[in-house]
Amino acid sequence: MKITIKDIAKISGVSTTTVSQILNNKGQRFSDETRRRVLKAVEEYDYNPDYFAKNMINRESKTIGMIVPDVTDLFFSKVIEGVEAYLTKKDYMILLCNSNHSHEMEKDYIKQLLNRSVAGILLASPNSLELETSLKSPYILIDRGLNTRTEGNLLVKEYDGSYESVQYLINLGHRKIGMLTNESGYYEMSERYEAYCQCLKDNNISYNETYLEDGPVTIEGGYQAAKRVLARTDITALCCGNDQMAIGAYRAAYESGLHIPNDLSIIGFDNLEISEYLNPPLTTVAQPAFEIGYTAASYLFQSINQPEAKVPNKTFGTKFIVRGSTSLVDKI
Amino acid sequence: MKITIKDIAKISGVSTTTVSQILNNKGQRFSDETRRRVLKAVEEYDYNPDYFAKNMINRESKTIGMIVPDVTDLFFSKVIEGVEAYLTKKDYMILLCNSNHSHEMEKDYIKQLLNRSVAGILLASPNSLELETSLKSPYILIDRGLNTRTEGNLLVKEYDGSYESVQYLINLGHRKIGMLTNESGYYEMSERYEAYCQCLKDNNISYNETYLEDGPVTIEGGYQAAKRVLARTDITALCCGNDQMAIGAYRAAYESGLHIPNDLSIIGFDNLEISEYLNPPLTTVAQPAFEIGYTAASYLFQSINQPEAKVPNKTFGTKFIVRGSTSLVDKI
DNA sequence: CTGAAAGCGCTTACAG
DNA sequence: CTGAAAGCGCTTACAG
């Protein structure tokens, strides 16, 4: 049987009011003697106020929900790490939901989280989300462009980052530049794709549809997509939707007998820790995953504690990192 | 203002008892008419029973806590995925804690989780843990050998897996076999190390301390450790504590001008998705991370619902996977 | 400086 | 078939 505040009150010979006030550092000053007696009993019996009873009154669950499309995705796991790092300091805990890229699951999770009275929600999903407006608890959107909200959005300069990488390839002399993207209309992917198109245009390079391939944003997805595009084209460079896809593209290139970067230049997006260790190290567009998570958590925290205040938006810059997977074009 | 059961009762003209019973499918049969009225009001006002009030009575938080040493670790994120996959089906949610390999943090988190009345705890930590016995909620230990508990342990045949990989190298003619391990006495690492020693012994190969290196079980850790051991020895093969370390070792090898596998054979442990995509693909010892998580969750669930029943232990086998990072020894 | 009592939003014997 | 009342374990005006 769990020990309750009544037990502590009885043991230390005071009322529950007193115990409660002392434990919460509230109310009037109590005599040192009383305080000591109560604290001693608490200590001795290892009393902890019941979480549910306490919350029924305080409504401070100190819990937030976080929904990600894939926990094993290296980008998102880094974001989670950032979120956790911030929230732990504040004694908050995070209810983690893995939506498996499913929009249905996301909606389900949001409902469940709301039922659990979480203090706020962190939604790291690239999907557009119509039910946003019905969300009555504070929330922050990570990496989301497709929404009508004007505050609490954390974005990354997907477009600029992607543009820069394509321009880099063009400057190296590449003209036949492929791109691996994602079919399902993910916001970031669209941005990166748009930048690709625009950059070609700005450089008077004609757009070639066969240079494009779709696939899941995973290693395997990148492998399959790259395989297809390499089989039917003679591209000299390939922009991958993200680093994971680039990793898959490496293998596709090897299997096609292509040497990176001599025969094929490859560029990723994310700058995962692992990308630096690939062979050759991957040229990529860095985005600050940990910082994104950390900032998202801090904004949410702020939004929970000052519901009236407007939550700022934030756009993170990217950084283009040249490594060994890109080189001057080698063939015409 | 949140809508309560009283509101629903008033709106549908019945008592709160009736509303509660209908919503929980309990008690006696109610007239269809009453049921319809109540359900309609619930629907219309989007009523959801308060999580805390409900739990104060039912004590079914349907929440478990999970502690991992590192969310960004590819092995653990896969385990999390498995846990999530099982628990979601059961309408449970998981409170995720990232201990950063810190034993102190683990203890803190356990305390916090207990205070929150989680239904159970999943502890994925390679640390030994003295306070286990004081854990009064159901729990399952993942990947833990150093404990005195006789049930609810999920283990992997670390020793056998490691032994097999070392023996494989020896069969290829290797005699100068290095090993990258972890200093902090992690159970799995010790097992793998013990197997390494025993296998050498069984093959009458003398143990050479300089072939050993310690490091964090990360890519960077593997890189640094491999760099050190390659700088001072002429090993022809290297067993890495896990795949992440192996990835780091790849780069160390390249920087030392060594070709894998011709100059240096490398073996990992885990079989991460990425390992197959490395260049060359990594020979490694596979362990079923997703399945481990999934099983752990199912055992915990069982243990929550039948507290008296003994929770089984389970030991997962490993599978040795030969890929391109190992070859016959090339130099004497 | 301290306590009796009301109340948070539910569920559940119990009575009718 | 349905409701009044007690109770879960807390906190908080309020009164003294």
UniProtKB/TrEMBL annotation, chains A, B:
Organism in which the protein naturally occurs: Vagococcus fluvialis bH819
Q: GO molecular function terms here?
A: DNA-binding transcription factor activity; transcription cis-regulatory region binding
The record's keywords, sorted A to Z, are:
DNA-binding, Repressor, Transcription, Transcription regulation
InterPro entries xref list = HTH_LacI (IPR000843), LacI/GalR-like_sensor (IPR046335), Lambda_DNA-bd_dom_sf (IPR010982), Peripla_BP_I (IPR028082)
* Highest taxon, organism lineage: Bacteria
Q: What is this protein called?
A: Transcriptional regulator, LacI family
HTH lacI-type domain spans which residues?
3-58
Statement: the UniProt record of this protein carries the keyword Transcription = yes
Q: Which residues form a coiled coil?
A: none
